[in-house]
Amino acid sequence: MIARARSLLASVFGFADFRPGQEDIIAPILAGRDVLAIMPTGAGKSLCYQLPALLDDGLTVVVSPLIALMRDQVAQLTGLGISAGALNSSNDAAESRRVFDALRTGDLRLLYLAPERLAKPDTADMLRRAGVKRLAVDEAHCVSQWGHDFRPEYLALGELKRALGQVQTLAFTATADAATRADMVERLFDHTPEIFVGGFDRPNLMLAMQAKDGPRRQILHFLQPRRGQNCIVYCSSRAGCEDLAQALNQAGHRALVYHAGMDKSLRDANQDTFQRQDGIVMVATVAFGMGIDKPDVRFVVHADLPKSIEAYYQEIGRAGRDGLPADTLTLYGLGDVRLRRMQIEDGQASDEQKRIERQKLNALLALCEAPRCRRQTLLAYFGEQSAPCGHCDLCIDGVQSTDGTVDAQKALSAIWRTGQRFGTEHLVNLLIGADTDQILRFGHDQLPTFGVGKDHNRDRWRSIFRQIYAAGLITQDMSEHGSWSITEAGGEVLRGRATIALRADTLKAKGRPKRPVATVPDSVDSDLLAALKKLRRELAEEQGIPAYAVFPDRTLVELAAARPASLDDMKGIHGIGERKLERYGRLFLDVLT
């Protein structure tokens, strides 16, 4: 079966081989087993349910969060010669008839549905009659209240599954911590599925963070050499989106706005423009992006601090999904931290949920203040270890740091002497010698570490705890009231066998970083690449589909680099399967020759 899958991978999708992890996930799917897969954005989750749908009889239903995403995926699949359709509120009568006819005749291989449709009483009956074999849930973390983007509509999946009976279930997401994974298993599966947790590293993304120092100027400076390429800029407020988009347009960029306060028709039109055209800067709140499948976003900027590391990872993951280099920049300041803390405290969540949100904010601040490679800190949050990447801002620019071994030892000693049972605030009180009720109740005012850190204020000690967390010296159990425990590396520092440098410049703006601009290889003729993109844009406009549904950027870059002289030569290019070679090959060959 996997041999047939490889054959279709090349002939239909135009891919020479599976991406890392795909074959390991597809094999049990073809064997009929339930699967939960956590794969980094851009790792090819869609192929893991699209390819099996071609290899056996029966219908695969895909639950997907955005109408625009469904429409574009259906356009891509149809362009590959695959029978696919979507049922949603944007369908005209003719399209709905086409889909229902294909369902009745059994020709449809993939049907995309919005989660809102799951609760309709006729949905289960329709799917049973159509012979549904497989249910694939995209962005599956939305089913969990532990996830960073909980959507109540996803809870209807459980009822739909019961109504359909023994249907194979697949769930995919890019971001899920241990608590979210457990919640997904409980809500989506009748028994424990095969769970695959792929690596979280996105080596093509350049990671950078900067303290705010005139954020509008910083963003304009970042985008100036990147003019004419696809970019998303996230802002925390609707007014911030409007103001920044106006400034970008005045500076000569083509900027559009997306937020929940806009008229729906304008919001949808802007999203369609971003999906289908090149050279757009989308300035948006986090309402934009869920399910966005545009592979050639070259840059993602956060004008304000994201909500959490999970949200940050999900949002920067919308850049460089084609595997080509992409840059990210996140700006943060004390005002962002205060606002986020106020949102947590004033929110309607339970005390337990607020505690988790505070810990997640601290983990994000640890990433901002990291004293070592940015990628190492990010991956450590998800339980992965890595060597310094060499191309994040901290690896390239370095940091202003001093020997922080003694301060780290004081913090580690406070953790050790209190039994590794307490969180940051209690430990800070211990170090600065604050005789709080809790300090006195536990007798911690009698410990040798009581008051040894009076030379620093509370904010500096909080930063030290975040930094030694980012450096891997301590770890935090979010399900156990945020208590800190010492890692093996932390033990080495505590015993004086290792040293650590800590940053003194956190939350203070530095000079402009020496970040490289993501570019295509030097071997590619820029004029030829521009001509190929022009043809792609014309073909996409004729068909009313996104430009990348003709060919993604990676295909055009490979064509411009290899300069194939015949249709046979084009067969080895990434993304050119038999159907696309037949449909577009001669047109692109004319440009190349």
Automatic annotation (TrEMBL):
Record bears the keyword Mitochondrion: no
PANTHER family given in the database record: ATP-DEPENDENT DNA HELICASE Q1, DNA HELICASE RECQ FAMILY MEMBER
What keywords sit in the KW lines? ATP-binding, DNA damage, DNA recombination, DNA repair, DNA-binding, Helicase, Hydrolase, Isomerase, Metal-binding, Nucleotide-binding, Zinc
- Enumerate the spans annotated as Helicase C-terminal domain: 215-362
Q: Which Gene Ontology terms describe the biological processes this protein takes part in?
A: DNA recombination; DNA repair; DNA replication; SOS response
Q: What is its EC number?
A: 5.6.2.4
Q: Which reaction does it catalyse?
A: Couples ATP hydrolysis with the unwinding of duplex DNA by translocating in the 3'-5' direction
* InterPro entries found in the cross-reference section: DEAD/DEAH_box_helicase_dom, DNA_helicase_ATP-dep_RecQ, DNA_helicase_ATP-dep_RecQ_bac, Helicase_ATP-bd, Helicase_C-like, HRDC-like_sf, HRDC_dom, HRDC_dom_sf
Provide the protein name.
Answer: DNA helicase RecQ
| Cofactors | Mg(2+); Zn(2+)
Q: Which residues form the Helicase ATP-binding domain?
A: 26-194
CDD domains to which the protein is assigned, alphabetical? DEXHc_RecQ
Q: Which SUPFAM superfamilies match?
A: HRDC-like (SSF47819), P-loop containing nucleoside triphosphate hydrolases (SSF52540), Winged helix' DNA-binding domain (SSF46785)
What GO terms fall under cellular component here?
bacterial nucleoid; cytoplasm; replisome
Which residues does the UniProt record annotate as the domain HRDC? 522-593
Gene3D superfamilies from the xrefs? HRDC domain (1.10.150.80), P-loop containing nucleotide triphosphate hydrolases (3.40.50.300), Winged helix-like DNA-binding domain superfamily/Winged helix DNA-binding domain (1.10.10.10)
Q: Which family does it belong to?
A: Belongs to the helicase family. RecQ subfamily.
Please give the Gene Ontology molecular function terms for this protein.
3'-5' DNA helicase activity; ATP binding; DNA binding; four-way junction helicase activity; hydrolase activity; metal ion binding
